[in-house]
């Protein structure tokens, strides 16, 4: 089975301000000093783990995180647009607290994320479309690199929905977003249609063996 290590990007200014980001790609969505420093901590982790390939979302926060993590290694970081965060349309770059007050029926206060039917008013990407593109990436990479370990730097919504798709297509809204720079591990064999969730949202602190 192919092993995928799913890492959420480092802290951004939008994270610090509690804004919903989606496909936001301006200065608000760039890494803070803390995000950069925390990403550098993975450099030591990679010294003790075999990584065969690395893929990243093209959004600035993920791309910067992947380059920091893989610095001082011979791992070539490849960009794949299917790993981009879901777009929240008109809500990209909006304060989450404002959304929760104004659009109560479209926002899940438990998971701090929007419901799938929010597309009715925000003109964003549908959950179904985003889940399809994300899973296409997972299955394609697993076929291409059987029995290898792939590092994937992406976004909170993407990671929790990959996990949900591994768990018999459970609705991704059941999960809270993983923390910045946490790692989630799955194993996939698309030939026989088997996938396994090894762990979800493991914090960087104390990580030795991925």
Automatic annotation (TrEMBL):
<feature type="binding site">
    <location>
        <position position="61"/>
    </location>
    <ligand>
        <name>substrate</name>
    </ligand>
</feature>
<dbReference type="GO" id="GO:0005737">
    <property type="term" value="C:cytoplasm"/>
</dbReference>
<protein>
    <submittedName>
        <fullName>Histidine phosphatase family protein</fullName>
    </submittedName>
</protein>
<feature type="active site" description="Proton donor/acceptor">
    <location>
        <position position="85"/>
    </location>
</feature>
<feature type="binding site">
    <location>
        <begin position="85"/>
        <end position="88"/>
    </location>
    <ligand>
        <name>substrate</name>
    </ligand>
</feature>
<dbReference type="InterPro" id="IPR029033">
    <property type="entry name" value="His_PPase_superfam"/>
</dbReference>
<dbReference type="InterPro" id="IPR013078">
    <property type="entry name" value="His_Pase_superF_clade-1"/>
</dbReference>
<feature type="binding site">
    <location>
        <begin position="8"/>
        <end position="15"/>
    </location>
    <ligand>
        <name>substrate</name>
    </ligand>
</feature>
<dbReference type="GO" id="GO:0016791">
    <property type="term" value="F:phosphatase activity"/>
</dbReference>
<dbReference type="Pfam" id="PF00300">
    <property type="entry name" value="His_Phos_1"/>
</dbReference>
<dbReference type="InterPro" id="IPR050275">
    <property type="entry name" value="PGM_Phosphatase"/>
</dbReference>
<feature type="active site" description="Tele-phosphohistidine intermediate">
    <location>
        <position position="9"/>
    </location>
</feature>
């Amino acid at each position: 089975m192919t092993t995928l290590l799913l890492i959420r990007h480092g802290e951004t200014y939008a994270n610090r301000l509690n804004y919903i980001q989606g496909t936001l790609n301006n200065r608000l969505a760039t890494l803070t000093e803390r995000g950069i420093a925390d990403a550098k901590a993975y450099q030591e982790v990679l010294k003790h783990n075999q990584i065969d390939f690395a893929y990243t979302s093209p959004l600035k926060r993920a791309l910067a995180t992947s380059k920091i993590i893989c610095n001082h290694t011979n791992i070539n970081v490849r960009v794949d647009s299917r790993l981009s965060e879901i777009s929240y349309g008109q809500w990209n770059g909006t304060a989450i607290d404002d959304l929760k007050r104004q659009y109560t029926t479209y926002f899940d206060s438990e998971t701090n994320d929007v419901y799938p039917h929010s597309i009715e008013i925000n003109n964003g990407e549908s959950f179904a479309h985003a889940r399809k593109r994300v899973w296409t990436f997972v299955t394609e990479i697993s076929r291409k690199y059987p029995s290898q370990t792939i590092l994937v730097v992406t976004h909170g919504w993407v990671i929790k929905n990959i996990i949900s798709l591994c768990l018999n297509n459970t609705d991704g809204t059941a999960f809270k977003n993983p923390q910045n720079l946490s790692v989630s591990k799955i194993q996939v064999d698309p030939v026989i249609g088997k996938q396994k969730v090894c762990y979800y949202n493991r914090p960087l602190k104390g990580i030795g063996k991925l």
